[in-house]
What we know:
The complex is a heterotrimer. Chain A contains 14 helices and no strands. By secondary structure, chain A is mainly alpha-helical. In chain A, helix 10 (222-229) packs antiparallel against helix 11 and helix 11 (234-255) packs antiparallel against helix 14 (290-318). Chain B folds into two domains: 9-260, P-loop containing nucleotide triphosphate hydrolases (Rossmann fold); 288-392 and 469-613, Rossmann fold (3-Layer(aba) Sandwich). In chain B, 30% of the residues lie in helices and 24% in strands. In chain B, the strands form four sheets. An eight-stranded mixed sheet of chain B has the order 16-17-18-13-19-20-22-21, sandwiched between helices. In chain B, strands 6-7-8-3-9-10 form a six-stranded mixed sheet, sandwiched between helices. In chain B, strands 2-1-4-5 form a four-stranded antiparallel sheet, with helices on one face. The longest helix of chain B is centred in the first third of the chain and has 18 residues, at 192-209. In chain C, a hairpin with an 8-residue loop joins strand 3 (82-85) and strand 4 (94-97). The two termini of chain C are 48 Å apart. Chains A and B meet through helix 10, helix 11 and helix 14 of A and helix 2 and helix 7 of B.
Amino acid sequence: MTRYLLRRLLYAIPILLGVNLITFSLFFVVNTPDDMAYKHLGDKRVTVEMVDKWKKDHGYDRPLIYAADRGGFARFSDTLFAQHSLKLFLLDFGRADDGRSIGTDIRQRMGPSLAIAIPNLLVGLLVYITVSLTLTFFRGTYIDFNGVLIAVAMMSISAMFYIIAGQFLLGKLLHLAPISGYQHGIAGFRFLITPVLVGLIAGLGGSVRWYRTLFLEEIEKDYIRSARARGLGEAAVLWRHLLRNALIPILTGVVVVIPTLFMGSLITESFFSIPGLGSYTIDAIRAQDFAIVRAMVFLGSLLYIAGLMLTDLSYVMVDPRVRLE
Amino acid sequence: MNSVVPPLLDIRGLTVEFVMPGEILLAVDQINMTIQPGKTLALLGESGSGKSVTALAMMGLLPTAGFISAGDIIFDGADLTSYSNAAMRSVRGSRIGMVFQEPMTSLDPVMTVGKQITEALPRENRRASRKSVREQGVQLLSQMGIPEPQRRFDEFPHQLSGGMKQRVMIAIALAGEPELLIADEPTTALDVTTQAQILDLLKQLQKERNMAMLLVTHDFGIAAQMADQVTVMRRGQIVESASAQDFFQAPQHPYSQQLFAALPSLSKRGKPLFESLYAIPVAQPESSETTTPTDKPLLEVSGLQVLFKQRSAGLFRERETLYAVDGVSFSLNPGETLAIVGESGCGKSTVIKSVLQLLRPDSGSVVFDDIELTGRSQRQLRPLRRNLQVVFQDPYSSLNPRMRVTDIIQEGMIAQKIGGNRSQREERVNQLLEDVGLDISARERYPHEFSGGQRQRIGIARALAVEPQLLLLDEPTSALDLSVQAQILDLLRQLQHAHGLTYIFVTHDLSVVEYFADRVAVMYLGRIVEEGPAVELMTRPAHPYTQALLLAAPAIEVAQEKGEPTPHLLGEPPSPIHRPSGCHFHPRCFQAQPICSLDYPQAVEISIQHRANCHFPLETETS
Amino acid sequence: MLGQPALLISDYLIWSICLIGGISLAIGLRNPLQRQRWRMILSTPSAMASAIILLTYLAIALLDSVHFRPLLPQDEATTNGSIEANSEQPNSTVTYAASEISLLDLLLSNIRKAEERSYSAPLAIYAFSKESLVTAAGTTRAYPRLLYGGADLENPALHRSDIVNRTLTGLGLSLILVIPIFLLFRRRSRRSPTLSAGNQTPAWRTAFMTIAGLLIIGSVATQLADHYHLLGTEKVGQDVLYLGLKSIRTGVLIGALTLLIMLPLALVLGTAAGYFGGWIDDAVQYLYTTLSSIPGVLLIAAAVLSVNLYLDQNLSEVTSLHQRADLRLLLLTGILGLTGWIGLCRLLRAESLKLRELDYVTAARAFGVVDARILIRHLLPNLGHIVLITIVIDFSGLVLAEAVLSYVGVGVDPSMISWGNMINSARLELAREPLVWWSLATAFIFMFTLVLCANLFADAVRDAFDPRLRGKQ
Lengths: 325, 623, 473
């Protein structure tokens, strides 16, 4: 097990390096630091000196990957790649364009993102499984047929409409919850109602349809038939045999996203003005703050890879057939 | 037989239909049958005859598209067709148990074996203390002849071998102490030695429990071994119903007779199995067995070794070496048929692939017509390939569904740049279709429009298109019904005669071997353990494994003297990754001596051209 | 001659996609098994209706993809900035407008040119908000009449009856087309036998109902839109119906072009990885694991930002606004394609792994058929259904993604008419008192219809071609 995890960790390094290389080439090769400087200094009478000063202030006045004028190790270390991309490996995210430390920002904004994402995930899982298991129970009837139709219709609606409708209904018409905003602590609970509810409904169609498919795929298998042949009732077949087997793909599909929950949801947080990492990212994109975007890309990949490893571990826990040696 | 005991099961006019898109399919058509308490009824039939549907209908387990449209299923005086779903539940398991064909998929993979058994126990027994429930489960396991039942109780299905899983399935079916056991092809997915064990077990349990049994099977041998009564089904209807004794002595219905005729056996060598337009009754003399050894061999394989570096279970990359083929040598004279026999996983198909150089052997040599094939590049091999062709087992995956038959057959000619221009090739396709007994109109059609047997004919035509000298047949009839198998075997025999073909025939079916082959090589765990002329080897086997295989194959002839069951081989073939030391067969061998676990035995000459790798070859009564 | 053809790059691309799609369909239909499957798809009522609606969307998108510079009347030419052409004939100078319009614009000239000053409700004749009006009695604050909506309606009291009249006229006119079509369909469905073994009859009834419904809606809408803003106007007074219709091209283009880019990538890499295995497989797997480990939106955002910045700095002399927006759209689809091929590639790799072990591939290798030919003859045709299912499902995903990306600020050019931009500019209008709902509702209905139809069609395709793939996203 330990050996397996070590090997997975080693395998993660080339992938993260690849991620790094992609972002590096996007941010430093496709558009050069000069482009960035011009963009930030505006169009009006920019001199070469001003550009150089901007680059120096933001640490962009180095060569890309090889510093020919330096000696020894500095030839490689005193470059944009080493200073801006490789440092991410040490979780040193550097500074945003306005000079704030990105690392501090990330730590502060993780909380609100999780406050939305975790209830969303847990309640969602419970609701989606219950609904899809009900549809499976009524398979072949009109309840199932119409249920699937509704699910397909629901997944054909853009998430933005759910948010807008949720804000309008709960916030404006019924005054059940604030339209947007966030508050730390228990008192902030009311701010979470709408985003969590909206997230739940927005994901309902797609998830229910997918889970139902997983259930139906399992229900056609031989072991279900042989469970029935030994006189088990439908409830015992569904709960004891079907659910356990179908949960394997469902759970492992969920586990992979757990680490990325930290990243928050871009549009939910932005619409509801929640000071999480999602709105942080979207603000950075709109302000074209490349340092933040770069940091978030790297963080996202890191968390995703962590999610993959967690998935493997969760397989061992739920599926007796899988061993990691 | 005319006892006053009412039958346990009485099926009257049962009709089952299936709703298919755009049509209604009649799967079972007004059948009648009865089973007496404690007796066995064998329901015999080819695929699609409706025998499994009948079994499922009795359990109330028909797929959603199927329904009983008429008839009664009277079980112990009550009509099951009138039962509600809930009432059926009280019958299933506790009064009628069922064992399915596929033990690999019929057990819940994420639940322990023990739990699955105990959940089938009668309700009052399940309410007992946890310890006593466990004891009941363990006891059932040990009754099924499973060693170390305490340990197995807590294991998951994937930790058991195929035969063991089927024993667990039987344990589950019997946990509710049913009066009737339905066994739907219970051994079809198993190897012949395991099959014999499971059949023995069923027979013994039936005797102990005085249980009635409905045995659904396609295998005449199994029916002969097991049944008191035989019912033959064809296309949803019953064509013949008789006591086993009468049936196997003199089948009455022409269809039954045709099936009997189609059974390959030693005594039918050289005679056609299936009377048809295409089967030319050529009385082929059994001379080919005595091919003079001076003939220059067409193919010489020596020391062939194929290793697989295992990447087990997908997730981790620990590598283990699997000896798929380990030091196989044989030679083949022109016009000869060599059968390679063995249970699944013995490496027989791998031999074929490595002879064809589709799989590069790790060592050894393959010499075809004085040309060494190993070590050649794909380009060098290309012109040689037309001489060796292959026919596959699965008629469904062997033809590209997106190509027309004419394109399928022409593929080889185009790749080998033979057969001239397009119209000449088309001409040749016509000729080939005629040769394999298909209508020329087949040319423009696609594979899905043909039946399994017809597809197999197309596959043979494709191989013959490049005029090969050697045809490698990889279980060409295993996926086919008995009557279709007979036609294909007839066709192959006839083609061999007409074109002077040489065959390597890989199979697990010994009756096909004794009917069809000139020489036989028996494989066990990647090695040939015995090789010799077919008739001699089948009648006087020298290796204990060959003998066990022959004994395990259920034969109709034995049916007459149904007495003590013959002792069968214990256990199942070990994994080719962890092969036993010395002679790989020694842990299962009745006469193993200490030396057997130390040294791999050298080949021993039994008679001319007959050798066996055994320290103590069987004393065969010399004729 | 309406004007000078000025096709955009994306116009060429979308037409060639249609051509490629049509040809591959025709090739596929040569196989009777394929024909039977398509018949099965069309026998599902929901799929039949979806197919017709999807084709309608496609037709609108194609109409909107024939751009030209319209011929200007002589007097206008002198005032507008215009391009002079045909300089060889100085006597008869023909002038063309500076900006391109499409055939759809031409058809919709009425509502395209009918701009109001600001918001107006659907079918309204008065503006949405009060303005100071100078009348004979002095300055009053009142709702002014619209410039276009019901402008020729002398008596405002007749507003409602005028709408009813026009609706009825529209209904009546549509019957002229609906009745002959009805007769045609009745003959058709009579001729095809019901319940023939294995052969399903297409859902002719549903087909007729859908076509009839579309015709009636179209006819009524034409009647009303001729004199009113059927779906109101938005902030700067543009007709919302026009915006909704124009967005169709953007949505369809994003879906189709992205697929055009990701298909070859996924096909080549996926089949190569699956068929050849070894280091090729390792490399492809590394590539897609790396790419897929970056959160999708972030990767797209990062790429779009970088590329746009590059464009801004280095390509400022692009000719027209249209062409610039078009270029941005192409780049967006390029980026979506480069990030979107992974799912399909994985599926194709897995399927190729399976296919290469099949006996017919082994048979081909035993004949010495070269790899390239095996790939083309044996693998590709048997991967068709996976490609088909994936593109239909991905298409709807891409239409939805456009809206989100436009909101995030990395979508299509803000000047381009798209559902995403419509939602984006209209989303705060729900906070207004009284409510402005029509922009959002229009974007919702147009988008929802397209995505729903694509999803329903995808379901039917999947059921017909590969029941095992059901629900795998």
